[in-house]
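Good morning C.,

I know you're traveling, so I'll keep this short. The sequence:
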Amino acid sequence: MTTRIGVVTFPGTLDDQDSLRAVRIAGAEPVSLWHRDKDLHQVDAVILAGGFSYGDYLRAGAISRFSPVMETVIEQAKAGLPVLGICNGFQILTEAHLLPGAMLRNNHLHFICRDQKLRVENAETAWTSDYTAGQEISVPLKNVDGRYTADERTLDELEAEGRVAFRYADVNPNGSLRDIAGITNAAGNIVGLMPHPEHAVEPLIGTGRTDGLGFFTSIIKKLVNA
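The tokens, ready to paste straight into the viewer:
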């Protein structure tokens, strides 16, 4: 049976089509999910794509967190459903308290768009198993509210439990504490990161490399071997 991976579209989502294409390139069946529909249509995993849902009104992800689809995503994620939050999707995951911490305005107060080098810190999650710990990859980064923050106790817990999934390498582009670019929950089924792996899955576009494809092949292998 083909692995089915859903991609949620909220008002203001920009990168849903890119994420659907990345899923297709990796070899799974992409399934479009609408924010007002609680039914996940029997998908095996969910991606919350990047963009500016609801125009980032109030806070990035603050309104989307209460969309009907998120009721089901939260419930099933807590039960083990693999969920990947990319950029705005990461912001939604923190607002939904599926991942700890919060995202603040970049420390330089400007939108940033660049290719970003990352170091893989945890290659044992459902979304990162095709990488190796310490591996450096390059994927596009584009955000204005990308500065990860949390209290010291939470940061220490993330470090101690190996839940920092990615760090910015070479340069910290937004002031994120401890250079954190992405994190995971304790079970490893939920991952959030600010950079965009869906824009680095084929040589023709994005960085011209395929460093982001491992996110999508990782989850397919995880589900196939479950």
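Safe travels,
E.
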